[in-house]
Design brief:
single chain; mainly alpha; two-stranded antiparallel ribbon; 2 helices; 4% strand; membrane
Length: 111
């Protein structure tokens, strides 16, 4: 025996098998990436929810303390109500402000 001799149909079958394995590998990589992206999105949402709840509890606690404390002056009560309201208003306005796509190209403003 001088070497391995393969018939053309056997070579074609081997080539098809390699192609099928390569396609299956690529599809599994795509599925894994998509699953990882979905998992990251869920973690982000949970993290954001936790931060929102902690921030709301902190603001509510300070407001409750300022409004129920008998020696708090009117300015302290006003500040306890107005400062969080200003931050909330800023976030609300930023969320509802519409910026057209033509204003930004590549992250830089067009002049």
């Amino acid at each position: 025996m001088t070497g391995i001799e393969l018939s053309p149909p056997l070579m074609l079958a081997g080539l098809v098998a390699v192609l099928v394995l390569w396609v299956a590998w690529r599809l599994s990589v795509r599925r894994a990436r998509k699953a990882a992206q979905v998992a990251r999105g869920g973690v982000r949402l949970l993290s954001l929810t936790g931060r929102v709840l902690v921030g709301a509890a902190l603001i509510s606690g300070v407001q409750w303390l300022a409004l129920t404390h008998p020696s708090a002056s009117g300015w302290v009560k006003l500040a306890a109500l107005m400062v969080p309201a200003m931050f909330a208003s800023w976030v609300f306005v930023r969320a509802l402000t519409v910026v057209s796509v033509e204003d930004h190209i590549g992250g830089r403003r067009r002049r």
